[in-house]
Amino acid sequence: MAETKGGKPISASQQTTGTDKAVVTRRQFFRRKKVCRFCVEKIDDIDYKDVKLLSAFITERGRIIPRRLSGVCSPHQRRLSNAIKQARNIALLPFTTR
Amino acid sequence: MRIYEQLFIVRPDAAEPEIDSFLEQITGVITSAGGKVEKLDKWGIRKLAYRVEKRHEGFYVLLQYSSKPDVVKEIERRFRVSDLVMKYLTVRIDQKLKWLEKRKRQREQRARQKPAAEPAAIPGEPVAQE
User: Fold this and answer.
1) What is the CATH number of the domain that holds B52?
2) Which of A86, A91, A94 sits opposite B91 (nearest CB)?
3) pTM of the full structure
4) Is the pLDDT at A5 greater than 70, yes or no?
5) Environment class of residue A89 by beta-carbon count within 10 Å: exposed (0-12), middle (13-18) or buried (19+)?
6) Chain A residues with CB-CB distance to B107 below 8 A
């Protein structure tokens, strides 16, 4: 009893302080501001025929990559998702792949 | 008059002259109704992303034309009737083209304004770094 009582608080406090620092530093290190690729490269025309471009924004399974992962701004994501859906309709991109 | 773009998939085992005669029919429909074919582009045989009519390949054709809306109806009807066409997609693009041109003009305007603003921005940068 005494051992567990004595052991727990110390280890817990040490761990929390240690991990907290590590998390903070790691986050600061890894977090990079995502920028919209279409804004940077100044691509106005997101065309459904451009399979090469569109396929960069779908997963292996054929799902559209969400904005929070790809960093695309919302006006461009809207156009992008429309283009992907059109491309799916004409069999340029898959709906799903198993 | 509106500008349309149609991408359709022709059966890959169809003979070349067969496709050509079909395309001539379609262009005939457009021109006889007072429209104008702007682009006719045969992409050739491509792999499909999924199976269509038990086939994994298709002969893609891109057709761009300006016409009245009822021409589209007629062409789509022909696509549906013909066993050559496996799948088609019609997109109205005149609004998009207009929008693109507007964007382009805005970009150019901004580019013209920028050279005046840049000399002021460059001396500012080293100060920020220091």
Assistant:
1) 3.30.70.60
2) A86
3) 0.72
4) no
5) middle
6) 42
